TrEMBL record:
<dbReference type="InterPro" id="IPR049492">
    <property type="entry name" value="BD-FAE-like_dom"/>
</dbReference>
<feature type="domain" description="BD-FAE-like">
    <location>
        <begin position="10"/>
        <end position="168"/>
    </location>
</feature>
<keyword id="KW-0378">Hydrolase</keyword>
<dbReference type="InterPro" id="IPR050300">
    <property type="entry name" value="GDXG_lipolytic_enzyme"/>
</dbReference>
<dbReference type="InterPro" id="IPR029058">
    <property type="entry name" value="AB_hydrolase_fold"/>
</dbReference>
<dbReference type="Pfam" id="PF20434">
    <property type="entry name" value="BD-FAE"/>
</dbReference>
<protein>
    <submittedName>
        <fullName>Alpha/beta hydrolase family protein</fullName>
    </submittedName>
</protein>
<dbReference type="GO" id="GO:0016787">
    <property type="term" value="F:hydrolase activity"/>
</dbReference>
Amino acid sequence: MLADHEGAPVAQWLAQHGLTTFVLRYRHAPAYHHPIPLQDAQRAVRFVRHHALSWGLDPERIGMLGFSAGGHLTSMVATHPEPGQPKAADPIELQSSHLNAHALIYPVISTTMNPEIFETLLGRTPDAKQMDLFSSENHVTAQTSPAFLVHSTEDGYILVAHSDRYAASLQRAGVSYTYVRDNLGGHGFGLQESWGPQCLQWFRALGWSR
């Protein structure tokens, strides 16, 4: 689930500013449903962490950036970290899927809004337990990694209230975050001057970018 303007161009832009980037193409609806997308994303984090030292990277500086539905997946990875499995035969599974930072650009967050999206993700109407599981704002803790949020107040598809709720949960948990909330146009605007420089500033503050 990757729009052309939200994948490689963004990765290339970040790379130009000193970040090592990867583009994840994960399995998704309608062919695949939960938990497959989440498992793919968690596996990607474990894969990079496993290879980090041999690639000259810091295994404790792994982040994820997602747009729209990919933003929801990123929020799920951020709020449902899985520890490494010490008895796993696969060395990649020895690594945790914990994110050290995450960025959400016009993300889907709460199942109480846009329920049709979650029906697509699950392939059926979610029950109460799944509604809670998929509402990432309910699972932010003090251990959740620092976040960068972008949402347009004029987004008529994925309402800004999604990011508002997530930001409020980060605030309550004492998690550091930056939130770009403004009239940035409709949904799906991609990389813009309105938020790109602030994102780079956020990465610099983390010590990740030049």
